[in-house]
UniProtKB/TrEMBL annotation:
<keyword id="KW-1133">Transmembrane helix</keyword>
<dbReference type="GO" id="GO:0000155">
    <property type="term" value="F:phosphorelay sensor kinase activity"/>
</dbReference>
<dbReference type="InterPro" id="IPR010559">
    <property type="entry name" value="Sig_transdc_His_kin_internal"/>
</dbReference>
<dbReference type="InterPro" id="IPR036890">
    <property type="entry name" value="HATPase_C_sf"/>
</dbReference>
<dbReference type="GO" id="GO:0005886">
    <property type="term" value="C:plasma membrane"/>
</dbReference>
<dbReference type="InterPro" id="IPR050640">
    <property type="entry name" value="Bact_2-comp_sensor_kinase"/>
</dbReference>
<feature type="domain" description="HAMP">
    <location>
        <begin position="321"/>
        <end position="373"/>
    </location>
</feature>
<protein>
    <recommendedName>
        <fullName>HAMP domain-containing protein</fullName>
    </recommendedName>
</protein>
<dbReference type="Pfam" id="PF06580">
    <property type="entry name" value="His_kinase"/>
</dbReference>
<dbReference type="Pfam" id="PF02518">
    <property type="entry name" value="HATPase_c"/>
</dbReference>
<feature type="transmembrane region" description="Helical">
    <location>
        <begin position="20"/>
        <end position="40"/>
    </location>
</feature>
<dbReference type="InterPro" id="IPR003594">
    <property type="entry name" value="HATPase_dom"/>
</dbReference>
<dbReference type="InterPro" id="IPR003660">
    <property type="entry name" value="HAMP_dom"/>
</dbReference>
<feature type="transmembrane region" description="Helical">
    <location>
        <begin position="296"/>
        <end position="319"/>
    </location>
</feature>
<keyword id="KW-0808">Transferase</keyword>
<keyword id="KW-1003">Cell membrane</keyword>
<keyword id="KW-0812">Transmembrane</keyword>
Length: 601
């Protein structure tokens, strides 16, 4: 009997028994403690979540209330503006389109600051008391897509107000054509400082006015929020309705927090009302989704008990090898580095001498890895740059040689017209291959314009008339390359875009005196009978906003021509525009009249 027990005792040492006993006790204590903690936590969790969610919705509603109140003040700036009220009241009955356009331009200037302060405003429509309608804003054209009955009903609702806002949510049936824009319509009476009503204003807001604030409520998938106006009408739904029935405020729970069960699922409702604009926010969130995350505590308790059992078994072994383990890690790391694995790092567990060696080893491998990466990256970049340079040299010459082949092909077939077009295109390609900073003569520049117009005439044989009138003595003037062609090309791209017939383009040149002691001007005028431009478009061309250049292609358009003249010749010279919408455009280039050779730009 004793002989049979000895092997058993040898197998189960005291340390093993101690580890098993402590681990078992740790598991039991952890399970009991975890279960009690989970129950207590679940109760406290629901109370804390309700309180925090209520505070969150209160803060969001306060921010939204402040922003909507800002919209009130911004539109007050328009309605109380004396110049606006005077301009609207001075309109005649059934004013013509020109008078309305002048007033809309005036109001657009007054609304410049409004567009900066309230980007959520997409457009404004003003009805004066004489049945005139004025549209303002970049997206005011969306008013035309709304049903007139819907707009008339909105205007009718304003008659019963005293100047406060009236809101309306747009539905799919309120549009003449399908419109995916998320918009909300608001209206108010326009009153002067003396409280005299002189018009009605409809404002088209983007739903980002509400979305930017209410999106923070979307803490779970099964979360919904509804925003109602002072009259209890639904203005915005966080997740959209998607064909669902429009909810009624009367069917919602009262103010504060309330847990209500719907279709077997418990929802926490929160209802609050804003102080300034009177909006009511009703939000709901599924308690099941919130409580599902609280089960992590129970899982952690079970997992920690299992980890404790394993940990107790290896503590003794770890203690015996604790001092030598950092050195062993360092030796294994050095073996990995010798094999070429420079991303190897050793874990530092102490701050003694071995820890200092481990930190130095990590710094060394990180530095080597960085140097190798930089070297590989430099080699790859050099190869890519070399390939791009070779490709940049081969592609243009390949195209030029191919055009020459097409020329002889058409010439041998007797198609001289197509051969001339190929010749024009080939000469233009050859001209553009020259460095853009190299100076040329006006004669060469006009020759390229002739080539470009020959191609355009082949494209529009019966609808294009082009005339070039430049005295012979001016053709030897020195100019930089690609001076006129971008402006002529813009005439075909923009001015003639909607013109199908009777396209007329004229290029003239003359020398203008600049007074005693000053060199004369070389003046080139390019005019067309296209769509024309507004003064705002001209200002945008002359004073463009800053845009970084694309590394792949440098622009040589109209803006580049203006910039190059300014940099090369100075402020005395430049580009002038004369244009009226629908009447065509005249572009005037004022350059120095130089006949002698000049250095490259």
């Amino acid at each position: 009997m004793n002989n049979r027990r000895r092997p058993f005792k040898k197998i189960f040492k005291f340390s093993t028994k101690l580890i098993i006993a402590l681990s078992t006790a740790n598991i039991l204590i952890s399970c009991i403690t975890g279960l009690i903690t989970y129950r207590i936590h679940l109760s406290l969790f629901n109370e804390e979540i309700s309180r925090q969610y209520y505070m969150t919705t209160d803060q969001i509603l306060a921010q939204l209330d402040s922003r909507v109140n800002d919209m009130y003040r911004i539109t007050d700036y328009i309605t109380l503006n004396p110049s606006v009220s005077q301009a609207v009241m001075e309109q005649n009955e059934q004013s013509n389109s020109y008078e309305r356009m002048k007033l809309e331009q005036l109001l657009d200037k007054e609304m410049y600051q409004v567009r900066l302060d309230a980007p959520e405003i997409m457009g404004i429509r003003i009805y004066d008391l004489k049945e005139n309608i004025f549209n303002l804003g970049s997206f005011s054209g969306r008013f035309y897509n709304l049903e007139s009955a819907y707009l008339d009903d909105m205007v009718l609702r304003l008659k019963e107000t005293g100047g406060e806002y009236v809101w309306s949510r747009t539905a799919e049936g309120d549009f003449q054509q399908r419109d995916d824009a998320n918009v909300v319509l608001a209206g108010r009476l326009m009153r002067s400082i003396n409280l005299d009503t002189y018009g009605r204003m409809l404002i088209l807001f983007n739903t980002s006015l509400f979305e930017s604030h209410l999106k923070d409520l979307r803490i779970h998938e099964d979360t919904e929020a509804y925003l109602f106006d002072e009259e209890g009408r639904l203005l915005y739904s966080l997740n959209g309705l998607d064909g669902q029935e429009v909810p009624e405020l009367a069917n919602m729970p009262g103010m504060g927090n309330l847990v209500r069960e719907e279709q077997g699922v418990s929802y926490m409702y929160t209802r609050q009302q804003s102080e300034k604009v009177g909006f009511t926010l009703v939000s709901k969130v599924s308690l099941a989704q919130i409580q599902s995350k609280s089960t992590v505590i129970l899982q952690v308790a079970v997992a920690s008990a299992l980890v404790s059992l394993v940990s107790l078994g290896i503590i003794i072994a770890l203690i015996s090898r604790m001092l030598l383990r950092p050195l062993g890690n360092l030796v294994r790391g050095m073996k990995h580095v010798r094999e070429g694995k420079f991303d190897t790092r050793v874990q530092i567990r102490s701050k003694d001498e071995l820890g200092y060696l481990g930190e130095s080893f990590n710094n060394m491998t990180a530095h080597i890895e960085t140097l190798i990466y930089e070297m590989y990256e430099r080699k790859i970049n050099e190869k890519e740059a070399e390939l791009k340079a070779i490709q940049a040299q081969l592609n243009p010459h390949f195209l030029y040689n191919t055009l020459g082949m097409f020329f002889w092909k058409f010439y041998m077939l007797g198609d001289e017209k197509s051969a001339r077009l190929i010749t024009s295109l080939s000469e233009m390609l050859q001209y553009t291959l020259e460095p853009v900073q190299q100076m040329t003569t006006l004669r060469d520049e006009i020759r390229q314009i002739h080539n470009y117009l020959e191609i355009q005439k082949a494209r529009y044989p019966d609808s294009l008339t082009a005339e070039i009138d430049i005295p012979e003595e001016m053709l030897d003037c020195r100019v930089f390359r690609l001076l006129i062609q971008p402006i002529v090309e813009n005439a075909f791209i923009h001015a003639f875009r909607n013109k199908k017939t009777d396209r007329r383009l004229q290029i003239t040149g003359y020398v203008q005196s600049a007074g005693e002691g000053s060199a004369p001007f070389l003046v080139l005028e390019i005019s067309d009978n296209g769509s024309g431009m507004t003064q705002e478009m001209i200002d945008r061309i002359l004073n463009p906003p800053y845009e970084p250049l694309n590394d792949k292609r440098k622009s040589i358009g109209t803006i580049s021509v203006i910039r190059r003249i300014e940099l090369v010749y100075g402020a005395t010279y430049g580009v002038e525009f004369e244009s009226e919408p629908g009447e065509g455009t005249l572009v005037r280039l004022k350059l120095p009249c130089r006949l002698q050779e000049s250095e490259d730009i």
